[in-house]
Design brief:
The chain is an alpha+beta fold. The chain is built from four helices and seven strands, in the order αββααβββαββ. The longest helix has 20 residues. The protein starts with a helix and ends with a strand.
Length: 136
């Protein structure tokens, strides 16, 4: 793993810890850890809507935006405003796509959420990260 991958992985893990610590007892399910090496997922976090909003409002967004935008593979909700880029070999590319925008869109929707994972690039078209957005 390169230094950027390690830094982003630590950012994701620390962000999850910070969000989990700052969440009250009623929000204990705001973050669900995901580890599935058999699927090429080294470390991931599924955030519910409250966790997504908290991440969007946190300073951690500035740390994660660069590496996740540059090296991330995005699975967007079909209602996302970021849909509609160029389709190449089954992968949608968009010049306007940024992690911060995808997260903001999910946070602004009624029950939107995101999941972030550090993944095996061999299993995910050369991407180091996977970001899944759900707007419903």
């Amino acid at each position: 793993m390169g230094i950027r991958t390690i830094a982003a992985a630590l950012g994701i893990a620390l962000g999850g810890a910070v969000l989990a610590t700052s969440a009250g007892a009623g929000q204990a399910a705001a973050i669900t850890p995901v580890i599935a090496p058999q699927d090429g997922i080294y470390l991931g976090l599924e955030l519910d809507h409250n966790g997504t909003v908290a991440l969007q409002r946190s300073p951690l967004m500035g740390v994660l935006n660069g590496p996740l935008t540059t090296d991330g593979l995005f699975y967007l909700d079909e209602e996302s405003v970021y849909q509609g880029g160029e389709l190449i070999d089954g992968i949608q590319y968009s010049d306007d796509l940024e992690f911060s925008g995808v997260t903001a869109e999910a946070a602004d929707s009624r029950s939107g959420s995101i999941a972030i994972a550090v993944v095996d690039p061999a299993a995910y078209d050369g991407s180091k990260y996977v970001i899944v957005q759900v707007l419903r």
